[in-house]
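Students often ask why inverse folding is considered easier than folding. One informal answer: many sequences map to the same fold, so there is more than one right answer. In these notes we will look at a single instance of the problem. The structure comes first.
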């Protein structure tokens, strides 16, 4: 498929194709190519770059990505819940001294 084919169909351009372009055209700004932000041309050496911006892919182009993000959020919530449960259990368990442990073992 061609670049225009991917763009016209709203499909993601394969990463290996993007990397190839960035490697071949060294004066193109990769950030601009990937996000449309900033200047198309690379700045001259010594020129300060714009601060980096966190880029989040549009999930409307990738339903599986949206589903993955929801699953990750749910798993993170579950992990946090398990951590809280573990903390509560640790509070309930009182450490025994060596003498108390031996006494309980002999009973």
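Output (designed amino acids):
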């Amino acid at each position: 498929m061609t670049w225009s084919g991917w763009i016209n169909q709203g499909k993601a351009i394969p990463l290996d194709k993007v990397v190839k372009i960035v490697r071949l055209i060294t004066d193109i700004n990769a950030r601009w190519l990937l996000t449309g932000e900033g200047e198309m041309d690379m700045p001259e050496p010594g020129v300060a770059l714009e601060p980096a911006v966190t880029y989040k892919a549009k999930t409307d182009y990738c339903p599986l990505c949206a589903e993955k993000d929801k699953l990750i959020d749910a798993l993170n919530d579950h992990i946090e819940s398990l951590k809280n449960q573990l903390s509560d259990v640790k509070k309930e368990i009182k450490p025994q001294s060596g003498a108390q442990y031996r006494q309980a073992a002999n009973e």
